[in-house]
Structure formats: C-alpha cells, structure tokens
Design brief:
The chain is of the alpha/beta class and about 625 residues long. The protein is built from 13 helices and 33 strands. The chain folds into 3 domains: about 200 residues, no CATH class; about 220 residues, Alpha-Beta Barrel (TIM Barrel), CATH 3.20.20.70; about 100 residues, no CATH class. It is about 25% helix and about 30% strand. The longest helix is centred in the middle third of the chain and has 19 residues. The protein is flat and about 75 Å long.
Length: about 625
C-alpha cells in the first residue's frame, strides 16, 4: 500500500486558505495563524538566522483543520529550532493519549514531554473525555526526524489544554527548505477513530509505502526469550517446538544467544552475526527440522549493535553514532554507506543461507544522538547521507529490499517503542514492549498499538506464568492478549497437563475467531481504566473481553452471535443484553459449564473465571 503525498495535498485541503502569514529576518519572531475551528496556532523561532517562515491554515474535507508551516533559506544551512503551539479550554477533557507514555490522566503541561521520531513514538497526541470521546488530536506530518512534544497537558493559566511541538531540537544536516503540516482534529468521535485517522493521515501526508502483511504474521508464536534467555541450543528448541506445534503455535522466534557462547545478557558479542556452533551444530538442517513440524522460523538481530568483543568492532571504529556504551555494544552510524551495506547484506545472507522465514529486528531506537553529532567536526567525512533520520530510513529500506528479495513474504517483527507509521514501511509485526507478568500493561499496550497500526499485525509481549498457579488464573493473561497475535514463552515441557489443555483450547479459540479478534473493527473501552472492556467484531460475530471485576459488558445489537470472555478475577459476569437470549457457558478448557436465559438489560450470571459465554439470540423473543 502506498500513500502518495501529492494526491493527498490536492484532495484533502479545501481551496480556501483562511489565514496566511510570513516572516523573515534574523530576530526572534512570533506568527499567529487563525484556524478554521476557532483556535489560534502560534509559530515561534528564537534564532531564525537567514530562514524565512510562512504559515497557512485550511479546512479539510473530513471536518478537521490543517496548518502548513514552510521554511526556506537562500543556501543550505542547519535549520533553526522552531515551535508550534496551541491551546483549548479544558472542558470535559480529562485524559491524554501520547506514546510512549500511554496512561490515563492529564499531566501538567510542564511535566508532559514526549518525543516522536522514526524509531520511537507516534507523530500525534490525543486528548479525550471520560467517555472515550475525542476532544483534540494533533498530528504532524514529520514521520522521520525527532519532534519534541514539549507540552501536551494541562496549562495552569486559563485552565486549558496545551500542545507545543518543538522541531529541530537535535543536530540536523544542512537544508535549504523544510515543510511540515499539522492536523487538528476536534471532532466528537470515539478517540480510537481519531487516533486511527491521524495515523492514516501521517501515512498519506508522508507518502509512506507500507509493507505487505502476510497471513502468517497473525499466527500464534513460540519465543525462546523468557524461558531460555541466551542459553539456547538446537536440541532444546526442537523439543519445545514439537510441543508448541501440537498446541497450535505456528511460528518460532529464536531470540538472543544464537550468535554467542556467552550467557551474561550483554551485547559485547553482537556484530559478527555468526552462528555459535556449540549451540547450533548445523543451522540450516535445524531450521528445516523445525519447519517440518509446521512452524515458521524467525531469528533475532540487534540491528545497529557492534560489540566490543566482536571481530567487527575494530573494522567499524569511528563509524558509531556516539561513544555511548550499551552493555558492551556500540551503535553503528547508518550515514556510512558501508554500514548500511554490511547490515542489509548480512541479514539477507542469514535469510538465504539458513532458509529462515523472517527476522526479529531489535534496538532500532538506539540509532540516535547522545549529545553532539560527531560528523560535524569531521565535515561529514565518509558519510553519503548527512541526516541521521534520513540515513536510518535508507538503512531500513535497504534491509526491506534485501530481505524481501530473498523471501517476498518474510515476517519482520518490531517492538515498542518503534511502532509508529514510518516503521510500517519496513515490517509487518509490531509487539508490545517487555511486560511478561503485567496483565494490565500487556493489554493496554496491545490496544494502543492496534489503534494506530492499521492492517499491520499486532503482537502481545510473550506470556509467562508460574505453573504452580491454577490454569484459570493463568488464562486471564491469555484472555487479556487475545486481540493480538499471542506470543508464548513458557517452558512447555514443564507445563502441567491442565495448563496444556487450557493453552491448547485458547490457541484454538484464537484461530477459530481470528477474523473478529485480529482483523475486525476494534474498540477498547475505558481508557481512563486502561481498557477494562475490549470489543471487536467481524461480519459474522462480536467478541467482548472483560478484564476488571464488576464491569458491565454490552452485547451490542442483536444481529450476530456474541462471545463474552471472563478475564476478571471473579466467577461472575455482568451483561447488558440487547434483548432476550440464550447464553451457553463454558469453562477455561472449552467444556460446557451450563446455560442461562438472559433478559433485556443488565444482569449478573455466573461464568467460570477464565471462561466465557456464547450468546445466541432467540428468534421468538421481543425486542
């Protein structure tokens, strides 16, 4: 899917420009631009130098406002830092949604900073009421470079909600022109719709060419990370995969450890990317054995890291983004063409020689400055691209081209916080960041990623639980993640039989209801409580998951079967039925546990913890 910026420019903005201003000069200036919705946007620059600024606003066809800011200079120069800010009254506006700090509440504006760049965060921020209704969503078209959302919270003066965006707050290569657009959405719609529309707008405005999403990207996954960490061996993996395949898992991710004999959890041995033959005697043969079990094979790489104990460390000395050390590893600078060539070719080589099906690409968010840009004092020597953001984009596109040339339907996984619109150009699986035992964090992170991910496959962080627990308790972890492709990282050989039965049932359920759970319309409810109810539906069915005790689940219209999953800690569900119905009750193993007659309205019915009900509407009942 390709979004073309030039088509968007002519199709969305109305012909009437409501306000336009311009400024040029070396002195600090401030420009005020009236927006069609009644707000005022303020553009400021403390040191414009020889740069000229212009700004204009217009109305979009969908009822949102758009602000365009353009900069130009007579000759290439470092672009000046500038800001765009706006406010609105804080009326029935109680929560802020902003990655990577997605949490309810309204932070004070002076303590509300978040960032967006190609490899971290989202180029939009949203404010909503307690009823999940959008109050203000501000998006910006800069999908690559860092933008500091310096203020996005409650302003003490005037009891207002304020947004301030700072551009070019870190080193940037010389430019002669720059343009950015802002989208200001005050429509009273479900906030998830506003976020999804903002994400689509960024994709269109930035002309992003999104990667295809193969059906396998939605399959259940077995990951080696939490149970093995770096202590992995081919025989152990094959033994686990034999069990995983029988349980219904379709993909294996072999995480860190395959490239080193070290188990210290650092990155000192990254960068050569050669198989440890003590762990994998014959990698291609091992991969084929796993694939013969019906599982696809994905391998982890820390994309930019070169460890201090690797052979390549000396080779790439002087070609790091900074001197910062990350557990023994340094971060390569993709502005050097030989760095990009090395990384892309090595990944493609692994795909080709080992016969694997995809890659888990890690630590892309470490390609950033830690202080001054070392290239400036070297006059960019050896670097064919001066902008780090542009070079990172080029690196990722080179990887995509090289890997997909080997396998057009390759699976590429990224994790938070690099899950924004631009990253959808290079990968097709986006996972919640590490939170293995945190049922709330996993659920809320999945929801937040899905709201902005379009048709990309969203994955849970790997599930891990103590086998001494009851299976119906552990099932709550599974239910909380079912609206994503679930990844498991248990030591399967140690699972008690009742845990295996529970796991097999829920994997089967996730696949039987795959269209509704993973691809249908998606509505997580109650952002102020981190989504205690999640709804999704396809043309054929509606599925509702309850996570918090005492929460009412609504059946919605009586037009299709409804499944309500009990992910709470109680053996009770409160159901608001649209009309009279029959509810079949099941336990966490999928065994029938009874039935209940539902009347219109709210009622309490007993449902086993970790179980669910299926509601079939009674044709002989009245509405």
């Amino acid at each position: 899917m390709k979004y073309l910026a030039q088509e968007f420019k002519s199709a969305v903005l109305s012909a009437v420009v409501l306000a336009a201003v311009a400024a040029r000069g070396k002195d600090e200036f401030e420009m005020k631009v009236a927006l069609p919705g009644g707000q005022v946007a303020v553009v400021t620059c403390a040191q414009p130098g020889g740069w000229s600024f212009s700004a204009s606003a217009g109305k979009a066809a969908d009822g949102t406002d758009e602000l365009a800011v353009d900069l130009s200079a007579d000759a290439e120069a470092a672009p000046p830092q500038f800001s765009v800010r706006m406010e609105m009254p804080q009326c029935d506006t109680w929560h802020r949604w902003a990655a990577p700090l997605e949490q309810p509440g309204m932070p004070p504006a002076w303590k509300s900073r978040v960032e967006s760049r190609l490899s971290s965060g989202y180029p939009f921020v949203a404010f909503l009421g307690g009823d999940d209704t959008n109050r203000l969503t501000v998006a910006f078209s800069e999908a690559k470079r860092k933008v500091s959302i310096a203020r996005a919270g409650g302003e003490e003066q005037g009891a207002a909600v304020g947004v301030k965006l700072d551009f070019f707050t870190e080193p940037e290569a010389p430019l002669s022109s720059y343009s950015v657009k802002l989208r200001i959405d005050r429509r009273a719609v479900y906030f998830g719709e506003a976020i999804g529309d903002a994400a689509d707008w960024v994709c269109r405005c930035a002309g992003l060419d999104l990667a295809d999403v193969p059906e396998a990207a939605f399959d259940p996954v077995y990951s080696t990370w939490y149970q093995f960490h770096q202590d992995i061996h081919d025989a152990d993996i094959e033994a686990e995969c034999a069990i995983a395949a029988k349980l219904g898992m379709k993909t294996l991710i072999v995480d860190d450890g395959w490239q080193t004999d070290d188990n210290s959890l650092g990155y000192a041995f990254c960068g050569d990317w050669e198989i440890s033959t003590n762990r994998f005697a014959d990698m291609p043969a091992h991969v084929r054995r796993v694939q013969a079990m019906g599982m696809k094979y994905i391998v982890w790489f820390a994309v930019p890291f070169v460890g201090e104990k690797s052979k390549n460390y000396e080779r790439f000395k002087g070609k790091f983004v900074s001197n910062a050390n990350t557990l023994g590893g340094r971060t390569l600078d993709p502005r050097f063409p030989e760095v990009r060539s090395f990384i892309a070719s090595r990944l493609a080589q692994a795909m080709r020689e080992w016969g694997i099906d995809g890659l888990k690409l890690d630590f892309i968010d470490y390609i950033r400055f830690a202080g001054a840009d070392p290239a400036v004092k070297e006059n960019y020597a050896g670097r064919d691209i001066k902008s780090l953001a542009e070079a990172t984009d080029r690196l990722m596109k080179d990887i995509r081209q090289a890997v997909f040339a080997v396998k057009p339907d390759a699976l590429i996984e990224f994790r938070q916080s690099y899950v924004g619109p631009a990253m959808r150009q290079y990968g097709n699986m986006f996972r919640a960041r590490d939170c293995h035992g945190d049922i709330i964090a996993n659920r809320s992170r999945i929801c937040n990623i899905r709201l902005a991910a379009g048709n990309s496959a969203v994955h849970a962080d790997m599930l891990l639980w103590n086998t001494a627990d009851k299976p119906e308790n552990s099932a709550r972890l599974v239910i909380s993640t079912l609206f994503s492709a679930v990844q498991y990282s248990m030591m399967l050989r140690d699972l008690p039989e009742n845990h295996r039965r529970m796991l097999a049932h829920w994997i089967g359920f996730s696949q039987a209801h795959r269209e509704a759970l993973l691809k249908g319309s998606f509505h997580p409810r109650g952002y102020d409580r981190l989504y205690p109810v999640i709804e999704a539906e396809s043309a054929k069915e509606r599925i509702v998951a309850v996570a918090a005790d005492g929460t009412v689940a609504e059946t919605g219209a009586a037009d299709k079967p409804v499944w309500i999953l009990n992910g709470s800690s109680q053996g009770v569900l409160f159901i608001d039925a649209a009309k009279a119905a029959t509810a079949e009750i099941y336990d966490t193993f999928g065994a029938r546990a009874g039935a209940a007659r539902l009347a219109p309205g709210v009622q309490r019915i007993e449902v086993p913890r970790g179980g669910y009900v299926c509601i079939q509407w009674r044709a002989d009942s009245e509405d």
